[in-house]
Amino acid sequence: MKTFLLSLFSVFSLSGFSQDVTGIWRGYFNQVEYVRDEEGNKIAIPRERYKFEVQLDQQNNRMKGVTYSYLSTVFYGKAVASGTFNAKTKKIILDELKIVEVKMSGFSDACIMQCFLQYSRSGDEEFLEGTYTSMNVKDSTNCGRGTVFLRRVVTSDFYKEPFLVNKEKEATPPPANTPPKTDLAKKPASPVKPPVVAKPKNPATPVVKKPSTVAKAPASKKQLNSKDS
């Protein structure tokens, strides 16, 4: 029973795993010419190398995006693309649908590509490698074929497409609303009240005593007679 549950869990884990290739991939593609040697073996001879940048937006097993084929940022062709991703085999088929911007010499023809890529990882590095075929957009003639090598990067040689900018905004959590910290050091000190000084009581008004009146004794008759004489 334990073995069965473990096996069932492993199946669900593998089926639920899905590699996301959303992002920017940059590298190059080599146009090659295949010839036969004297013994009849097929040999690839490199002819031209172009820089190649792909910006992808994956939704489940389908994807859309843009591609840049260029010698420099002033000599390039930009195309919109769509494709599929097999999560089990990690294989990608990417088709350029139409060219939306071209900056090249008048002697060059614009071609659209179909890429057959294999996803791989080595440490922190991620790669898409494979082959491509191409077709001239004017007359549908063969434009050649060759090999593709791409590595995941974080910046673009041109500009980041809006679908990538929006995804980055959605993935960034909003800042938490935290109350501002109170700086105790800057808090104004409470005013210090002056000490209450007790007022001195009014001194009592001194009582001035009036001198007492001494009653004189009445004069005797002898004294009166002496005064009359």
Report on this structure.
- The protein is mainly beta.
- The longest helix is centred in the first third of the chain and has 15 residues, at 2-16.
- It has a domain at 18-169: Lipocalin (Beta Barrel), CATH 2.40.128.120.
- It is elongated.
- The protein is built from three helices and eight strands, in the order αββββββββαα.
Give the arrangement of secondary structure elements.
Layout: H1 2-16, E1 23-36, E2 42-59, E3 62-72, E4 75-86, E5 91-103, E6 111-122, E7 125-136, E8 142-153, H2 162-171, H3 221-228
Antiparallel strand pairs: 1-2, 1-8, 2-3, 3-4, 4-5, 5-6, 6-7, 7-8
How many helices? The count is: 3
* CATH 4th-level superfamily of one domain: Quinohemoprotein amine dehydrogenase alpha subunit, domain 2
Trace the largest sheet across and list its strands. Answer: 1-2-3-4-5-6-7-8
Uncertain runs are 1-17
How much of the sequence lies in strands comes to: over 45%
How large is the radius of gyration? 52 Å
CATH class annotation of one domain = Mainly Beta
Mean pLDDT: 80
How far is the N terminus from the C terminus? 166 Å
What is the total tally of β strands?
8
Record keyword descriptors for this entry:
229 residues, Lipocalin, 8-stranded antiparallel barrel
Give a nutshell description of this structure.
This protein is mainly beta.
